Amino acid sequence: MIKLSDFYESIFGSKTYKLSLDAGCTCPNRDGTKAFGGCIFCSESGSGDFASSRLLSIKEQVESAKKRVESKIKGRGGTRKGKYIAYFQNFTSTYGDSKLLLSKYHEALLCSDVAGLAIATRPDCLEEEILSGIAEIAENHFVQIELGLQTSNEKTGLLINRCYTNEDYILAVQKIRSASEKIHIVTHLIFGLPGENEKDMIDSIKFVVKQNSTQNREKELFWGIKITVLYVLRNTKIAEMYDSGELKTLSKEEYFLLLRKSLEILPENCVIHRLTGDPPKNLLISPLWTMDKKRVLNEIKDLY
Questions:
Q1: Which residue among 32, 194, 247, 302 is buried most deeply as judged by most CB within 10 Å?
Q2: For residue 83, what are the CA distances in angstroms to 105, 115, 295?
Q3: At residue 20, what are phi and psi to the nearest 5 degrees?
Q4: Cis peptide, bond prior to residue 267, ω within 30 of zero
Q5: CA 205 to CA 202: how far, in whole Å?
Q6: Average pLDDT, the chain
Q7: How far is CA 264 from CA 207, 251, 258, in A?
Q8: For 164-190, how does the pLDDT look when each residue is reduced to its tens digit (9 = 90+)?
Q9: What percent of the chain is predicted at pLDDT more than 90?
Q10: pLDDT for 52
Q11: Residue 272 confidence (pLDDT)
């Protein structure tokens, strides 16, 4: 396994910070194309609670996000030295007019000190036009595509209203690899989804490892993973389940045990992008232990 800081350092030669941006998209399970309401755990902002306002241009969003990053660093007594990755984070950032979205990606790359892109999307929203455009960008810039899988349990997938299948994920990985092996693929998983037990969650890890295997190539390709515990946020359907007693969130001890078992499975070419998230404190209902992010991060460092 590879730590994210080391991975970025090997590419950019410096510390790297992500700027959360809003491409102005929605999702096919929100706009009625496949369903309404979005995934039941997703906040009204489409899991981009820290992204800049979509009312701003991309350049304005980048500058606003830079100020937030620099403010946090100064608050910790440091100074910013390094580069930025423009992170199109919320909703499905490849879902919409391909030409318009590609122009937004290019606009971000024109901004000072922005050295690459991270694009969050769904496995079923990678049409040929936008994927080929992203592949062209990857010829000259670092690009990572983040696929929200969440679980490999199809029954859970139906329950959380994600509206795509494991086969969609398998095809997405294949399509990205075919478009360009320079694109860094990152997969999102959530531990603690309703009805899932330890086996379900570890099976999801094994599924992602299998699908990202690069056997029969001259060298293994680096790929990434993001794991987080399920957050119950206000004004979501998952909050209704929690309030009614249908759902119990994971304790820190339960979550850390799952992480330990997962890390034993992940191969050497896997980049650990995240083992905990950053829920908006004003929306968080449970688990409350995640609010002390600094302490959680320090304890996670002892896991690997």
A1: 247
A2: 16, 6, 26
A3: -80, 120
A4: no
A5: 5
A6: 92
A7: 14, 21, 10
A8: 999 999 999 999 999 999 999 999 999
A9: 80
A10: 76
A11: 96
Q: Which helix (H) or strand (E) holds 231?
A: none
β-strand 232-233 against 284-286: which pairing, if any?
Answer: antiparallel
Q: What is the DSSP letter of 74?
A: H
Per-residue pLDDT, 222: 94
Beta-carbon contacts of residue 80 (< 8 Å; ≥ 6 apart)? 17, 69, 70, 73
User: Is 80 exceeded by the pLDDT of residue 81?
Assistant: no
Token pair recorded at residue 161? 């209203």
Q: Residue 294 has what pLDDT?
A: 86
Distance CA 230, CA 165 (A): 20
Show Cβ contacts of residue 192 under 8 Å, excluding neighbours closer than 6 positions: 201, 229, 230, 249, 250, 255
The confidence score (pLDDT) of residue 277 equals 84
Structure tokens at 202: 């570890």
Calpha distance 243→179 (Å, rounded): 45
DSSP string for 109-132:
HTSTTEEEEEEEE-TT---HHHHH
